[in-house]
Protein backbone atom coordinates (compact mmCIF):
# COMPACT_ATOMS: atom_id res chain seq x y z
CA UNK A 1 0.00 0.00 0.00
CA UNK A 2 1.08 3.53 -0.62
CA UNK A 3 1.54 6.02 2.19
CA UNK A 4 0.08 9.40 1.41
CA UNK A 5 1.57 11.36 4.33
CA UNK A 6 -1.65 11.35 6.32
CA UNK A 7 -1.23 12.12 10.01
CA UNK A 8 -4.38 10.56 11.44
CA UNK A 9 -5.53 11.23 14.97
CA UNK A 10 -8.56 9.84 16.76
CA UNK A 11 -10.76 6.94 15.74
CA UNK A 12 -10.27 5.07 12.49
CA UNK A 13 -13.56 3.58 11.31
CA UNK A 14 -13.41 0.50 9.08
CA UNK A 15 -16.24 -1.01 7.07
CA UNK A 16 -17.53 -4.21 8.75
CA UNK A 17 -18.84 -7.04 6.58
CA UNK A 18 -19.95 -10.63 7.26
CA UNK A 19 -18.09 -11.96 4.19
CA UNK A 20 -15.34 -10.76 1.89
CA UNK A 21 -16.94 -9.41 -1.29
CA UNK A 22 -15.81 -10.33 -4.79
CA UNK A 23 -12.81 -8.15 -5.63
CA UNK A 24 -13.00 -5.46 -8.28
CA UNK A 25 -10.29 -3.01 -9.40
CA UNK A 26 -12.29 -0.24 -7.70
CA UNK A 27 -11.56 -2.00 -4.36
CA UNK A 28 -7.86 -1.08 -4.59
CA UNK A 29 -7.08 0.82 -1.38
CA UNK A 30 -10.31 -0.26 0.34
CA UNK A 31 -10.06 -1.71 3.86
CA UNK A 32 -12.72 -4.04 5.26
CA UNK A 33 -13.11 -6.02 8.47
CA UNK A 34 -14.73 -9.45 8.14
CA UNK A 35 -16.70 -10.15 11.30
CA UNK A 36 -17.02 -13.92 10.81
CA UNK A 37 -13.25 -14.52 10.50
CA UNK A 38 -12.25 -11.46 12.57
CA UNK A 39 -9.68 -10.45 9.95
CA UNK A 40 -8.79 -7.19 8.25
CA UNK A 41 -8.37 -7.13 4.47
CA UNK A 42 -6.98 -4.51 2.15
CA UNK A 43 -7.64 -4.25 -1.55
CA UNK A 44 -4.38 -4.37 -3.52
CA UNK A 45 -3.89 -4.27 -7.29
CA UNK A 46 -4.52 -8.02 -7.70
CA UNK A 47 -7.18 -8.82 -5.08
CA UNK A 48 -7.79 -8.90 -1.35
CA UNK A 49 -4.83 -9.22 1.01
CA UNK A 50 -5.04 -10.24 4.69
CA UNK A 51 -3.54 -7.28 6.54
CA UNK A 52 -4.59 -8.35 10.04
CA UNK A 53 -2.21 -7.22 12.74
CA UNK A 54 -3.51 -9.94 15.00
CA UNK A 55 -2.49 -12.78 12.75
CA UNK A 56 -1.79 -15.90 14.71
CA UNK A 57 1.68 -16.09 16.13
CA UNK A 58 3.85 -19.17 16.10
CA UNK A 59 4.18 -21.36 19.12
CA UNK A 60 7.15 -20.74 21.32
CA UNK A 61 9.77 -23.43 21.64
CA UNK A 62 10.34 -25.50 24.73
CA UNK A 63 13.45 -25.02 26.76
CA UNK A 64 16.05 -27.77 26.79
CA UNK A 65 16.75 -29.92 29.80
CA UNK A 66 19.83 -29.09 31.76
CA UNK A 67 22.65 -31.63 31.93
CA UNK A 68 23.66 -33.55 35.02
CA UNK A 69 26.69 -32.47 36.94
CA UNK A 70 29.78 -34.64 37.02
CA UNK A 71 30.68 -36.91 39.96
CA UNK A 72 33.47 -35.57 42.10
CA UNK A 73 36.57 -37.75 42.46
CA UNK A 74 37.64 -39.43 45.69
CA UNK A 75 40.53 -37.99 47.58
CA UNK A 76 43.79 -39.97 47.74
CA UNK A 77 44.93 -41.84 50.84
CA UNK A 78 47.80 -40.46 52.79
CA UNK A 79 51.04 -42.49 53.07
CA UNK A 80 52.28 -44.26 56.19
CA UNK A 81 55.12 -42.88 58.19
CA UNK A 82 58.46 -44.70 58.29
CA UNK A 83 59.62 -46.84 61.25
Please explain how this structure is put together.
With 83 residues, this protein is mainly beta. The chain has a domain at 15-50. It has strands at 15-17, 31-34, 39-44, 47-50.
Based on secondary structure, the structural category is mainly beta
Number of strands: 4
Report mean pLDDT, rounded to a whole number: 78
List low-pLDDT spans.
Answer: none
The succession of helices and strands, N to C, reads EEEE
Fraction in beta strands: 15-25%
Which term fits the overall shape?
Answer: rod-shaped
Biggest sheet: strands side by side, in what order? 1-2-3-4
Largest sheet: 4 strands, mixed
What is the terminal-to-terminal distance? 97 Å
* DSSP summary: helix tally: 0
What portion of residues is helical?
A: under 10%
Gyration radius (Cα, Å) is 32 Å
Notable features of this structure?
0% helix, 20% strand, 83 residues, 4 strands, mainly beta
Q: How are the SSEs placed, and which strands pair?
A:
Blueprint: E1 15-17, E2 31-34, E3 39-44, E4 47-50
Parallel strand pairs: 1-2
Antiparallel strand pairs: 2-3, 3-4
Short description:
By secondary structure, the protein is mainly beta. It has a four-stranded mixed beta sheet, with no helix packed on it.
Amino acid sequence: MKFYGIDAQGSFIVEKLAALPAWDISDKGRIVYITTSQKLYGGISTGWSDVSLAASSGTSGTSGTSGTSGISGTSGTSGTSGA
